[in-house]
């Protein structure tokens, strides 16, 4: 007799997996990778050890899945912001920087996982993290290439890496500061966006927006 998977069964399985991922992101973001254990994730998700190992091989596996979820959430936020910015590429780039900073500021647990906790955890996790950052860098490079005639000559691949690096390094510094000493997130986003635009030689009218 063959067992059929119904839509409700698929939905319940996805909900159980999502609950484990949500708990893992919260713990990894607050406690760090090394202090977080599978039993702690299971307890926080009100799940079971058997359920955990049905969906994930080990702690590294769920951390990789968490990074992928964070990447998807960031991509959605960026795409929505860019779509609302209009057709002008430099304005889209400014908006994307602000959207990325706002996302990271509004989701400090996800930000710490991506920027801090994912470093130095082995080849697999480093590859996942690097692929995520590289996707942002490629988008910036494509945008710079599309408006090459509007800007001073540059090595677009190098400049794109600097553009993305400025965002992540600035947010890293921001996260490491005591909360009462941090710039407001909007002011931080504006400062980074303005710095990046000046660095690529954006026209005055874009800088003054």
Descriptive overview:
With 209 residues, this protein is mainly alpha-helical. The chain has helices at residues 7-31, 38-44, 49-55, 59-84, 89-106, 108-117, 123-146, 156-176, 185-199, 204-207. Helix 1 packs across helix 4 (59-84). It is elongated, with a radius of gyration of 20 Å.
Task: List descriptors.
209 residues; mainly alpha; Arc Repressor Mutant, subunit A; Tetracycline Repressor, domain 2; 2 domains; 0% strand
How would you summarize the topology of this molecule?
Elements: H1 7-31, H2 38-44, H3 49-55, H4 59-84, H5 89-106, H6 108-117, H7 123-146, H8 156-176, H9 185-199, H10 204-207
Domain unit count: 2
Q: Just give the CATH class of the largest domain.
A: Mainly Alpha
Helix content: over 70%
Strand proportion, as a percent range, falls in under 5%
What's the pLDDT, averaged over the residues?
Answer: 91
Task: Assign the structural class, choosing from mainly alpha, mainly beta, alpha/beta, alpha+beta, or little secondary structure.
Answer: mainly alpha
- Rounded to an integer in angstroms, the radius of gyration calculated over CA atoms is 20 Å
Q: What would you say about this model in short?
A:
By secondary structure, this protein is mainly α. The chain has helices spanning 7-31, 38-44, 49-55, 59-84, 89-106, 108-117, 123-146, 156-176, 185-199, 204-207.
